């Protein structure tokens, strides 16, 4: 008897069913610019409107959600991890002032379970709709023998566009600009290897209920990443605020200081004042379990700040008020300076970028 693909562990029928289950969710992200629908070899997106730009710049980003997927798998809860993926990918696009156009996703799994794949993709589609991004294609790959039957990983890539004259970068930043901190929804999708290590070392399971977590530990950890794209695009489009918004920084791997340093010009520095906020309960609970200080995790977790905006002092309060209308608590956390300063204890640049210098000072608020 000849060997078959099914005997090797790959179920193409399950893959087809997964596509059928996700089609309606994906289609809801499609506008008139998307051609061909779901199922083609390549997603098609009409960019004729780019002729209206003087100098259109395409922006692209790719990412995953790291080991947060291990918690989703342990709890068999897969409907929020897609929002994490979109947050990690699309919110990097808006950092340069770009409007996202379209996204593709990739799911690798040990065994295709159609309802599970559909849940993941539905979460991606909902978040794409929230950010104005068309989900134009994707791939689900079954890897038996490499991944366990309940194992999977997700990744994605997106493309956006910005007019060259509207590009946000460090060249716009000036001494006297203020740094606004935009509140995170929790851990977002960074530092979960440390989270899992802390819990494993103390024998705490994801279904355990701990008062400091407000219920089951895993559910608190799966709080989806806050999406900043739509509110920030509205801010950029505001006649009063838009021209005063000079730079954005997405607080992901590396923490607050390293990511802010990347969008500051060389020679400038910022002291981020810890007393302007109190890290959310999840961070305090995890550090209490580990016996570490909040300060020792600043290079790993966002500690309650998911995005930073560098704006002119004159438009700071208007920006804070506008973001509050979108449900994002925002506050002034520091000021850009350029006079001489001993930068020995500052974080200077990151990820290959020779940017400014940042350090966190003071003590966190109660």
Automatic annotation (TrEMBL):
Keyword annotations of the record: ATP-binding, Cytoplasm, Ligase, Nucleotide-binding, Purine biosynthesis
This protein's pathway: Purine metabolism; IMP biosynthesis via de novo pathway; 5-amino-1-(5-phospho-D-ribosyl)imidazole from N(2)-formyl-N(1)-(5-phospho-D-ribosyl)glycinamide: step 2/2
Record bears the keyword Metal-binding: no
Subcellular location: Cytoplasm
Recorded GO MF terms: phosphoribosylformylglycinamidine cyclo-ligase activity
Pfam family, one: AIRS_C
UniProt domain PurM-like C-terminal: residue ranges: 174-339
InterPro entries linked: PurM-like_C_dom (IPR010918), PurM-like_C_sf (IPR036676), PurM-like_N (IPR016188), PurM-like_N_sf (IPR036921), PurM_cligase (IPR004733)
Reaction(s) catalysed by this chain's protein: 2-formamido-N(1)-(5-O-phospho-beta-D-ribosyl)acetamidine + ATP = 5-amino-1-(5-phospho-beta-D-ribosyl)imidazole + ADP + phosphate + H(+)
Enzyme Commission numbers on file: 6.3.3.1
CDD domains per record: PurM
Family assignment from sequence similarity: Belongs to the AIR synthase family.
Record's protein name: Phosphoribosylformylglycinamidine cyclo-ligase
Source organism: Lysobacter korlensis
